[in-house]
Amino acid sequence: MAAVGGSPTRALRFLFGYGLRARSAVAATLSGPRGLVYEQHGEPAQVLHLKDVALAKLGDFGVHMKIIAAPINPSDINMIQGSYAILANLPAVGGNEGVGQVMDTGNSVTTLKPGDWVIPADAGLGTWRTEAVFDEKILLKIPPDIPLTCAATLGVNPCTAYRMLCDFETLDPGESIIQNAANSGVGQAVIQIAAAKGIKTINVVRDRPNLQDLIDRLKSLGADHVITEEMLRKPEMKDLFKEIPKPSLALNGVGGKSATELMRHLRQSGTMVTYGGMSKQPVTVPVSALIFKDVKLCGFWMTQWKRANAQSKDKLETMIADLCTLIRKGQLVAPACQEVPLVDYQAALKISQEPYVSVKQILRM
Protein backbone atom coordinates (compact mmCIF):
# COMPACT_ATOMS: atom_id res chain seq x y z
CA MET A 1 0.00 0.00 0.00
CA ALA A 2 1.37 3.42 -0.90
CA ALA A 3 2.45 5.74 1.88
CA VAL A 4 0.03 8.55 2.64
CA GLY A 5 1.31 11.94 3.81
CA GLY A 6 -0.58 14.78 5.46
CA SER A 7 -3.17 14.78 8.21
CA PRO A 8 -4.68 11.70 9.90
CA THR A 9 -8.04 12.69 8.42
CA ARG A 10 -6.59 12.73 4.90
CA ALA A 11 -4.93 9.39 5.52
CA LEU A 12 -8.24 7.92 6.67
CA ARG A 13 -10.08 9.26 3.61
CA PHE A 14 -7.47 7.85 1.26
CA LEU A 15 -7.26 4.50 2.94
CA PHE A 16 -11.02 4.15 3.30
CA GLY A 17 -11.46 5.05 -0.37
CA TYR A 18 -8.68 2.68 -1.39
CA GLY A 19 -10.22 -0.01 0.77
CA LEU A 20 -13.73 -0.07 -0.74
CA ARG A 21 -12.89 -2.69 -3.36
CA ALA A 22 -10.49 -4.50 -1.03
CA ARG A 23 -13.15 -4.54 1.70
CA SER A 24 -15.64 -6.24 -0.60
CA ALA A 25 -13.02 -8.74 -1.74
CA VAL A 26 -12.01 -9.58 1.84
CA ALA A 27 -15.60 -9.86 3.03
CA ALA A 28 -16.41 -12.23 0.19
CA THR A 29 -13.70 -14.67 1.29
CA LEU A 30 -14.63 -14.71 5.00
CA SER A 31 -17.63 -16.74 6.07
CA GLY A 32 -17.53 -16.98 9.86
CA PRO A 33 -15.98 -15.22 12.87
CA ARG A 34 -13.11 -13.00 11.76
CA GLY A 35 -10.03 -11.69 13.51
CA LEU A 36 -6.75 -9.89 12.99
CA VAL A 37 -4.23 -12.74 13.15
CA TYR A 38 -0.43 -12.62 13.22
CA GLU A 39 1.72 -15.71 12.71
CA GLN A 40 5.06 -14.06 13.48
CA HIS A 41 6.24 -10.99 15.35
CA GLY A 42 6.93 -7.81 13.41
CA GLU A 43 5.43 -4.49 12.45
CA PRO A 44 1.62 -4.81 12.73
CA ALA A 45 0.96 -3.44 9.24
CA GLN A 46 3.05 -6.26 7.76
CA VAL A 47 2.17 -9.24 9.95
CA LEU A 48 -1.54 -8.74 10.75
CA HIS A 49 -4.10 -10.27 8.40
CA LEU A 50 -7.90 -10.37 8.61
CA LYS A 51 -8.85 -14.05 8.59
CA ASP A 52 -11.53 -16.50 9.62
CA VAL A 53 -10.91 -17.63 13.20
CA ALA A 54 -12.20 -20.82 14.78
CA LEU A 55 -14.37 -20.66 17.89
CA ALA A 56 -13.41 -22.77 20.88
CA LYS A 57 -16.00 -25.23 22.16
CA LEU A 58 -18.43 -23.71 24.65
CA GLY A 59 -18.02 -26.42 27.29
CA ASP A 60 -19.43 -26.09 30.81
CA PHE A 61 -17.76 -22.79 31.72
CA GLY A 62 -17.42 -21.14 28.31
CA VAL A 63 -18.97 -17.83 27.33
CA HIS A 64 -19.69 -17.10 23.66
CA MET A 65 -19.44 -13.36 23.17
CA LYS A 66 -19.86 -11.00 20.27
CA ILE A 67 -17.10 -8.40 20.48
CA ILE A 68 -18.45 -4.94 19.73
CA ALA A 69 -15.44 -2.63 19.94
CA ALA A 70 -11.75 -2.83 20.84
CA PRO A 71 -9.11 -0.08 20.99
CA ILE A 72 -5.56 -0.05 19.66
CA ASN A 73 -3.20 0.55 22.60
CA PRO A 74 0.61 0.87 22.62
CA SER A 75 0.85 -2.46 24.48
CA ASP A 76 -1.07 -4.15 21.65
CA ILE A 77 1.51 -2.87 19.16
CA ASN A 78 4.39 -3.97 21.40
CA MET A 79 2.97 -7.48 21.76
CA ILE A 80 2.73 -7.89 18.01
CA GLN A 81 6.27 -6.53 17.59
CA GLY A 82 7.47 -9.07 20.17
CA SER A 83 8.82 -6.46 22.60
CA TYR A 84 6.23 -6.70 25.41
CA ALA A 85 6.57 -8.45 28.77
CA ILE A 86 3.96 -11.05 27.81
CA LEU A 87 3.67 -12.62 24.37
CA ALA A 88 0.87 -14.76 23.00
CA ASN A 89 1.45 -18.19 21.54
CA LEU A 90 1.57 -17.90 17.77
CA PRO A 91 -0.51 -17.73 15.68
CA ALA A 92 -2.45 -15.20 17.75
CA VAL A 93 -5.22 -12.64 17.48
CA GLY A 94 -4.20 -9.08 18.34
CA GLY A 95 -5.76 -6.86 20.99
CA ASN A 96 -5.89 -6.90 24.80
CA GLU A 97 -8.90 -4.75 25.58
CA GLY A 98 -12.47 -4.25 24.41
CA VAL A 99 -16.13 -4.76 25.17
CA GLY A 100 -18.52 -7.45 24.02
CA GLN A 101 -21.99 -8.86 24.59
CA VAL A 102 -22.72 -12.37 25.80
CA MET A 103 -24.51 -14.52 23.22
CA ASP A 104 -24.52 -17.92 24.96
CA THR A 105 -23.06 -19.62 28.04
CA GLY A 106 -22.09 -23.09 29.17
CA ASN A 107 -24.34 -25.01 31.54
CA SER A 108 -22.17 -24.28 34.61
CA VAL A 109 -21.78 -20.51 34.08
CA THR A 110 -23.41 -18.65 36.98
CA THR A 111 -22.21 -15.03 36.79
CA LEU A 112 -23.14 -14.16 33.19
CA LYS A 113 -26.17 -14.54 30.93
CA PRO A 114 -26.98 -13.69 27.31
CA GLY A 115 -27.24 -9.96 26.77
CA ASP A 116 -24.69 -8.99 29.46
CA TRP A 117 -21.86 -6.62 28.55
CA VAL A 118 -18.40 -7.93 29.42
CA ILE A 119 -14.76 -6.87 29.28
CA PRO A 120 -11.60 -9.01 29.67
CA ALA A 121 -10.35 -9.50 33.21
CA ASP A 122 -6.86 -10.38 31.89
CA ALA A 123 -4.56 -9.45 29.01
CA GLY A 124 -3.62 -11.50 25.99
CA LEU A 125 -7.09 -12.79 25.03
CA GLY A 126 -7.05 -11.39 21.51
CA THR A 127 -9.94 -8.91 21.26
CA TRP A 128 -9.51 -7.82 17.63
CA ARG A 129 -12.10 -10.29 16.38
CA THR A 130 -15.83 -10.43 15.82
CA GLU A 131 -16.64 -13.36 18.14
CA ALA A 132 -14.89 -15.50 20.73
CA VAL A 133 -15.46 -18.13 23.38
CA PHE A 134 -13.67 -17.38 26.66
CA ASP A 135 -13.79 -18.94 30.10
CA GLU A 136 -16.22 -17.29 32.52
CA LYS A 137 -13.45 -16.57 35.05
CA ILE A 138 -11.53 -14.26 32.68
CA LEU A 139 -14.52 -12.05 31.87
CA LEU A 140 -16.00 -9.25 33.93
CA LYS A 141 -19.57 -7.99 33.71
CA ILE A 142 -20.03 -4.24 33.31
CA PRO A 143 -23.19 -2.11 33.28
CA PRO A 144 -24.70 -1.57 29.81
CA ASP A 145 -25.60 2.08 30.45
CA ILE A 146 -22.16 3.63 29.93
CA PRO A 147 -21.00 5.00 26.55
CA LEU A 148 -19.52 2.42 24.20
CA THR A 149 -16.14 4.16 23.93
CA CYS A 150 -15.90 4.28 27.73
CA ALA A 151 -16.73 0.57 27.96
CA ALA A 152 -14.21 -0.38 25.25
CA THR A 153 -11.39 1.54 26.96
CA LEU A 154 -12.30 0.83 30.59
CA GLY A 155 -10.09 -2.13 31.47
CA VAL A 156 -6.55 -0.75 31.07
CA ASN A 157 -5.90 2.99 31.31
CA PRO A 158 -8.60 4.08 33.81
CA CYS A 159 -7.79 1.05 35.99
CA THR A 160 -4.06 1.88 35.90
CA ALA A 161 -4.79 5.48 36.89
CA TYR A 162 -7.16 4.40 39.67
CA ARG A 163 -4.72 1.97 41.25
CA MET A 164 -1.75 4.35 41.14
CA LEU A 165 -3.79 7.08 42.81
CA CYS A 166 -5.07 4.70 45.51
CA ASP A 167 -2.30 2.23 46.29
CA PHE A 168 0.94 4.16 46.84
CA GLU A 169 0.21 7.35 48.82
CA THR A 170 -2.72 8.50 50.95
CA LEU A 171 -3.90 11.59 49.09
CA ASP A 172 -6.28 14.01 50.78
CA PRO A 173 -8.28 16.72 48.98
CA GLY A 174 -6.07 19.74 48.31
CA GLU A 175 -2.87 17.70 47.97
CA SER A 176 -1.12 17.43 44.64
CA ILE A 177 0.44 14.89 42.29
CA ILE A 178 2.74 15.39 39.30
CA GLN A 179 2.79 13.27 36.15
CA ASN A 180 4.44 13.17 32.74
CA ALA A 181 2.77 11.74 29.61
CA ALA A 182 -0.27 13.68 30.82
CA ASN A 183 -1.98 13.53 27.42
CA SER A 184 -1.81 9.71 27.28
CA GLY A 185 -4.82 7.55 28.03
CA VAL A 186 -3.54 6.94 31.55
CA GLY A 187 -2.68 10.62 32.00
CA GLN A 188 -6.15 11.79 31.01
CA ALA A 189 -7.74 9.28 33.39
CA VAL A 190 -5.43 10.42 36.21
CA ILE A 191 -6.51 14.03 35.68
CA GLN A 192 -10.20 13.18 35.87
CA ILE A 193 -10.09 10.73 38.79
CA ALA A 194 -7.86 13.10 40.77
CA ALA A 195 -10.20 16.04 40.06
CA ALA A 196 -13.15 13.99 41.30
CA LYS A 197 -11.23 13.38 44.55
CA GLY A 198 -10.22 17.05 44.95
CA ILE A 199 -6.55 16.30 44.26
CA LYS A 200 -4.52 18.91 42.33
CA THR A 201 -2.57 17.77 39.26
CA ILE A 202 0.61 19.10 37.65
CA ASN A 203 0.68 17.69 34.15
CA VAL A 204 3.80 17.51 32.00
CA VAL A 205 3.59 17.16 28.20
CA ARG A 206 5.98 17.42 25.27
CA ASP A 207 6.08 20.72 23.39
CA ARG A 208 4.28 20.57 20.04
CA PRO A 209 2.78 22.83 17.35
CA ASN A 210 -0.76 22.63 18.80
CA LEU A 211 0.32 22.97 22.44
CA GLN A 212 -2.39 25.45 23.43
CA ASP A 213 -5.10 23.15 22.03
CA LEU A 214 -3.73 20.32 24.16
CA ILE A 215 -3.54 22.53 27.26
CA ASP A 216 -7.16 23.59 26.76
CA ARG A 217 -8.22 19.96 26.27
CA LEU A 218 -6.49 18.76 29.47
CA LYS A 219 -7.83 21.68 31.50
CA SER A 220 -11.33 20.90 30.28
CA LEU A 221 -10.85 17.46 31.86
CA GLY A 222 -9.89 19.03 35.20
CA ALA A 223 -6.12 19.58 34.95
CA ASP A 224 -4.92 22.31 37.32
CA HIS A 225 -1.53 22.99 35.71
CA VAL A 226 -0.20 21.89 32.31
CA ILE A 227 3.49 22.50 31.59
CA THR A 228 6.05 21.32 29.05
CA GLU A 229 9.11 19.18 29.74
CA GLU A 230 11.24 22.33 29.22
CA MET A 231 9.21 24.34 31.75
CA LEU A 232 9.61 21.52 34.26
CA ARG A 233 13.35 22.26 34.40
CA LYS A 234 13.08 26.02 34.90
CA PRO A 235 13.49 27.93 38.21
CA GLU A 236 9.97 29.33 37.76
CA MET A 237 8.65 26.02 39.05
CA LYS A 238 9.22 27.42 42.53
CA ASP A 239 6.44 29.93 41.90
CA LEU A 240 4.00 27.13 41.11
CA PHE A 241 4.58 25.59 44.53
CA LYS A 242 3.51 28.85 46.16
CA GLU A 243 0.01 28.06 44.85
CA ILE A 244 -0.20 24.35 45.64
CA PRO A 245 1.74 22.00 47.94
CA LYS A 246 4.64 19.98 46.57
CA PRO A 247 3.44 16.59 45.33
CA SER A 248 3.81 13.45 47.39
CA LEU A 249 3.21 11.26 44.32
CA ALA A 250 4.82 11.32 40.87
CA LEU A 251 3.56 9.14 38.01
CA ASN A 252 6.17 8.34 35.36
CA GLY A 253 5.23 6.99 31.95
CA VAL A 254 8.26 8.34 30.09
CA GLY A 255 11.55 7.54 31.86
CA GLY A 256 14.87 9.25 31.11
CA LYS A 257 15.42 12.89 32.10
CA SER A 258 11.70 13.46 32.49
CA ALA A 259 11.54 10.95 35.34
CA THR A 260 14.57 12.52 37.04
CA GLU A 261 12.89 15.93 36.93
CA LEU A 262 9.68 14.53 38.42
CA MET A 263 11.69 13.18 41.36
CA ARG A 264 13.30 16.57 41.89
CA HIS A 265 9.92 18.17 42.56
CA LEU A 266 8.63 15.55 44.99
CA ARG A 267 8.20 16.49 48.61
CA GLN A 268 10.18 14.76 51.37
CA SER A 269 9.52 10.98 51.46
CA GLY A 270 7.42 11.15 48.31
CA THR A 271 6.88 8.25 45.90
CA MET A 272 7.48 7.94 42.17
CA VAL A 273 5.57 5.17 40.39
CA THR A 274 6.81 4.12 36.96
CA TYR A 275 4.22 2.49 34.69
CA GLY A 276 5.73 3.11 31.25
CA GLY A 277 8.89 4.06 29.37
CA MET A 278 7.88 5.99 26.27
CA SER A 279 11.34 7.54 25.85
CA LYS A 280 12.96 4.09 25.98
CA GLN A 281 15.55 5.64 28.31
CA PRO A 282 16.42 4.28 31.78
CA VAL A 283 15.31 6.00 34.96
CA THR A 284 18.35 7.72 36.47
CA VAL A 285 18.09 8.29 40.21
CA PRO A 286 20.22 10.94 41.94
CA VAL A 287 21.79 9.56 45.12
CA SER A 288 20.61 12.68 46.98
CA ALA A 289 16.98 11.81 46.20
CA LEU A 290 17.40 8.50 48.00
CA ILE A 291 19.53 9.61 50.93
CA PHE A 292 18.36 13.12 51.74
CA LYS A 293 14.78 13.12 50.42
CA ASP A 294 13.99 9.46 51.15
CA VAL A 295 12.18 9.17 47.81
CA LYS A 296 10.56 5.79 47.19
CA LEU A 297 10.61 4.26 43.71
CA CYS A 298 7.97 1.74 42.65
CA GLY A 299 6.75 0.13 39.46
CA PHE A 300 3.21 -0.72 38.42
CA TRP A 301 1.79 -2.99 35.71
CA MET A 302 -1.98 -3.42 35.51
CA THR A 303 -1.72 -6.93 34.04
CA GLN A 304 0.34 -8.11 37.00
CA TRP A 305 -2.10 -6.52 39.45
CA LYS A 306 -5.05 -8.29 37.80
CA ARG A 307 -3.28 -11.63 37.89
CA ALA A 308 -2.26 -11.17 41.52
CA ASN A 309 -5.92 -10.55 42.38
CA ALA A 310 -7.39 -13.17 40.04
CA GLN A 311 -8.50 -15.59 42.78
CA SER A 312 -11.03 -13.07 44.04
CA LYS A 313 -12.61 -10.49 41.77
CA ASP A 314 -13.77 -8.34 44.69
CA LYS A 315 -11.11 -5.61 44.29
CA LEU A 316 -11.46 -5.61 40.51
CA GLU A 317 -15.25 -5.41 40.66
CA THR A 318 -15.13 -2.61 43.24
CA MET A 319 -12.71 -0.64 41.06
CA ILE A 320 -14.84 -1.10 37.94
CA ALA A 321 -17.96 -0.07 39.87
CA ASP A 322 -16.21 3.08 41.14
CA LEU A 323 -15.04 3.98 37.64
CA CYS A 324 -18.49 3.40 36.15
CA THR A 325 -19.98 5.67 38.81
CA LEU A 326 -17.58 8.43 37.74
CA ILE A 327 -18.54 7.82 34.09
CA ARG A 328 -22.25 8.13 34.86
CA LYS A 329 -21.60 11.38 36.76
CA GLY A 330 -19.72 12.80 33.77
CA GLN A 331 -16.51 12.93 35.81
CA LEU A 332 -14.68 10.38 33.64
CA VAL A 333 -14.88 10.37 29.87
CA ALA A 334 -13.03 8.30 27.30
CA PRO A 335 -10.12 9.90 25.45
CA ALA A 336 -10.95 11.36 22.05
CA CYS A 337 -11.70 8.36 19.84
CA GLN A 338 -12.01 7.53 16.14
CA GLU A 339 -14.20 4.51 15.43
CA VAL A 340 -12.94 2.49 12.46
CA PRO A 341 -14.52 -0.62 10.87
CA LEU A 342 -12.47 -3.76 11.50
CA VAL A 343 -11.84 -4.24 7.79
CA ASP A 344 -10.10 -0.83 7.67
CA TYR A 345 -7.61 -1.82 10.38
CA GLN A 346 -4.60 -0.72 8.30
CA ALA A 347 -5.72 2.91 8.45
CA ALA A 348 -6.27 2.68 12.21
CA LEU A 349 -2.84 1.11 12.77
CA LYS A 350 -1.14 3.82 10.74
CA ILE A 351 -2.75 6.66 12.68
CA SER A 352 -2.23 5.01 16.08
CA GLN A 353 1.54 4.97 15.50
CA GLU A 354 1.94 8.55 14.32
CA PRO A 355 3.64 11.06 16.69
CA TYR A 356 1.54 13.48 18.75
CA VAL A 357 -1.67 11.61 17.97
CA SER A 358 -4.19 12.10 20.77
CA VAL A 359 -7.13 10.35 19.09
CA LYS A 360 -7.44 6.70 20.10
CA GLN A 361 -8.37 4.30 17.33
CA ILE A 362 -11.32 2.03 18.17
CA LEU A 363 -11.97 -1.01 15.95
CA ARG A 364 -15.69 -1.61 15.46
CA MET A 365 -16.49 -5.26 14.76
Automatic annotation (TrEMBL):
Cellular localization per UniProt: Mitochondrion
SMART domains: PKS_ER (SM00829)
GO BP annotations, alphabetical order: fatty acid biosynthetic process
InterPro entries assigned to the protein according to its UniProt record, in alphabetical order: ADH-like_C, ADH-like_N, ER, GroES-like_sf, Mito_Enoyl-ACP_Reductase, NAD(P)-bd_dom_sf
Chief place of localization: mitochondrion
UniProt keyword list: Fatty acid biosynthesis, Fatty acid metabolism, Lipid biosynthesis, Lipid metabolism, Mitochondrion, NADP, Oxidoreductase, Transit peptide
Enzyme Commission number, as recorded: 1.3.1.104
Pfam families: ADH_N (PF08240), ADH_zinc_N (PF00107)
Domain of life: Eukaryota
GO molecular function annotation: enoyl-[acyl-carrier-protein] reductase (NADPH) activity
One cellular component (GO) term of this entry: mitochondrion
Domain (Enoyl reductase (ER)) ranges: 45-363
PANTHER family, alphabetized: ENOYL-[ACYL-CARRIER-PROTEIN] REDUCTASE, MITOCHONDRIAL (PTHR43981:SF9)
Record-stated family: Belongs to the zinc-containing alcohol dehydrogenase family. Quinone oxidoreductase subfamily.
Full protein name: Enoyl-[acyl-carrier-protein] reductase, mitochondrial
Organism this protein belongs to: Crotalus adamanteus
